[in-house]
Amino acid sequence: MIDIRNTILEQISNLDINHYQVSKMVKDRIPKRTVYAFLSGEKDTGTKTASILMEALGLKVKVNPDRTEYLRAEIMKQSKPKSYLGRIKNEWEKAGKPNWSLRELLGICLLIDLEFSIEGLNPAQKFRNAVESKNYSYLITWAQGLKFKTWE
């Protein structure tokens, strides 16, 4: 918030206005005391108050699309379960809890295994070995053992 406060103070100086005039500009949306406390550095403020002040002073936040995409990717990585069952359950719930056929389920399992492989993870070595050795009977048995009804 310090950078935002400094930017707002710089804009106030550029516009050659004072704190009182700023508080008048936002009087219907922010209490006067809150404006003074924030601008003086006495107290920090929330994003809503800061955005109202910035808008009133004609300031806009510049978004770095590369940084935004990087942060979004990091959040997605953190939100994914680290187990096969966790990821399968996640996909099943996102798809609206459908009644997948064995073929669809195997496809999902193989895609999840590929994701784990790309991420450098191997939470189920026997499953990965079965995929690599094309042991279809093991993969079918493994997929048939999933109990979607107990997840509800």
| Main sheet overview | none
Low-pLDDT ranges? none
The percentage helix is 55-70%
Taking the alpha carbons of the first and last residues, their distance comes to 43 Å
> What is the alpha-carbon Rg in Å?
27 Å
Strand/helix succession: HHHHHHHHH
Q: How many E strands?
A: 0
**What would you call the shape?**
elongated
Question: Structural class, from secondary structure content?
Answer: mainly alpha
- Average of per-residue pLDDT values: 85
Strand content: under 5%
Number of helical segments with 4 or more residues: 9
Count of individual domains: 2
Describe the secondary-structure layout.
Blueprint: H1 2-15, H2 19-25, H3 32-40, H4 47-56, H5 65-79, H6 84-94, H7 102-118, H8 125-132, H9 136-144
Helix pairs in contact: 2-3, 6-7, 7-9
Overview of the structural elements:
It contains nine helices and no strands. With 152 residues, the chain is mainly α. The protein has two domains: 2-56; 81-151, no CATH class. It starts with a helix and ends in an 8-residue tail after the last helix.
